[in-house]
Amino acid sequence: MIQIVALLAVSWLIIWLFERGNLSVLGLIPNLQRVKYFLILFLASALISSSAFLLKMYFAREVYVIDDALTITGFLRSSWYQVRTVLTEELLCRGVILYIMIKKWGHRPAIFVSSLLFAVLHWLNAGVWGNMVQMALVFAFTFAMGLLLAYAYARSFSMLLPFAIHLGWNWMQNYVFPDNPMGSHVFVLDGPPPVVTISYLAFFTMLLLPKIGVLIVDYMIVRKYSV
Question: 47 exposed, middle or buried (CB, 10 Å; 0-12, 13-18, 19+)?
């Protein structure tokens, strides 16, 4: 929580120095339209994210069950961790810095630079630095996702839209299902992953379809936002 307060304080200082403005440029105050799109984008991202695991169930014969260690307190604590992590990334990559870049450079250059920063940040967070193949894979998706998230802010001038997309995807990938075996989850694999042989088509479908789907579907939703 301290890091979020610190980021908000630094954000306020930057926007005040830039145009004697305040944190209203982040668009965090909800209104009917923002709440509506927040809910739609969060649900769309979460459902599409969960499809990755549904595809694993179908093609790789993986079976998921509710984690026996799941508790209400643990659920709330882990969900808050996802909220805090996503909000931190949003303030860093699509906060007042993106607003200032849009004002100084225009939408397209600002969106590009913000997306580049988002991708490089994930190189460091994902621990893939030095492995060129993994770096390329991480960059491809996070840069494309960064374009979507930055476009969502530029379209609405509200961080609530990119936050909803980002949180819906991360919450499902990082907490609800065990994309990473470390930590607690809502669902866990029922035993060791089964050894199955799948085609390259099935493999790339599991790998790419949810990622491409979330980019396309959320982009189409954001485009309908009334400016």
Answer: middle
99-153 pLDDT, tens digit each? 999 999 999 999 999 999 999 888 777 666 777 777 788 889 999 999 999 999 9
* Of 137, 95, 98, nearest in space to 119 by CA: 137
Task: State CA 86 to chain mean position distance.
Answer: 7
Q: Give dist(CA 73, CA 56) in Å, integer.
A: 29
Q: Is 169 helix (H, G, I), strand (E, B) or coil?
A: helix
CA atoms within 13 A on the CB side of 123: 16
- Radius of gyration of the CA atoms of the chain, in A: 18
Q: Given the structure tokens 């969106």, which residue do they identify?
A: 111
User: Is 45:173 a contact under the CB 8 Å cutoff?
Assistant: no
Question: What pTM was computed for the model?
Answer: 0.92
Helices (H), the chain: 2-19, 32-59, 72-94, 96-105, 107-126, 132-156, 160-171, 200-223
* CB environment 55-82: b (16+ within 10 A), e (fewer): bbeebbebebeeeeeeeeeeeeebeeeb
